[in-house]
User: Fold NAD(P)H-binding protein from Chryseobacterium edaphi.
Amino acid sequence: MKIIITGSLGNVAKQLAQQLISEGHEIIVISSNESKKSEIESLGAKAAIGSVTDVEFLKETFSGADSVFLMTPPMIDATNIIEKTINVGKNYAEAILETGVKRLVMLSSVGADSPVENGPIASLHHIEKIYSDLENVSSTFLRAGNFYINFFNDIPLIKNAGIIGANYSADVKVPLVHPKDIAKAAAEELVETSSDQKIRYVVSDNRPAGDFAKVFGAAIGKPDLQWIEFTDEQTFEGISKAGLPEEMAKLYEEMGRGIRNGIVQEDFIKYGSPIEGETELEDFAKEFADQFNS
Assistant:
């Protein structure tokens, strides 16, 4: 099969490309970074260098493809982040319609069922609807949990303040996922020939936030590490100081509030809180410790 992968050689896309290439598929990886071309080709894939904001580039790249893996990176600008992210989804949809691609697999998120109180995930809610309305195209929405690797962002806080936390309590359960588990699920879905549309939750573990402190603390030799529930204001301030634009900081604050209120996890729980990934929190803690000590 001829399969298009968006997301350059990111945490999911690279592993996905490697798996599909090993299965004998023709893979084209889209990247906006010219310097990635040789690395993409070294994997055995073809490189398509261009911007996902360029519809004509997408049409040319999607031409003749059997299926496409669609990641929609948040447009981390100062303003209109949700709108700009949705516009990328619209570009993908237009390219699919124009080129006759029959199968798409979208990297979505737990919480994408809701249009509100989920921060940057709101853009994925609208993009799911755009893809659902495409005629003669089968779709799978991979609603992934919170990426384990996002915890790497907490390392400075742990080192400087000896704590870890967010604007939800230690008792709140958070669905988690490892990128390699997403890549495995995406590879399965991309070669499916079904004409159905479906939602597939991709979650590796589902744990109370307090466990993050316990498990990571044990892994890094800080058994007394505590989970702290920050206020929304403290969360916004901390994210802003980390260098993100004000609008994105507000979106992440909102997402944490949505986790605290249960809006983000609600549909995942209705589905029975399915766990299909192989990487438990304790498994990832080894990677976390390596990163912490590097």
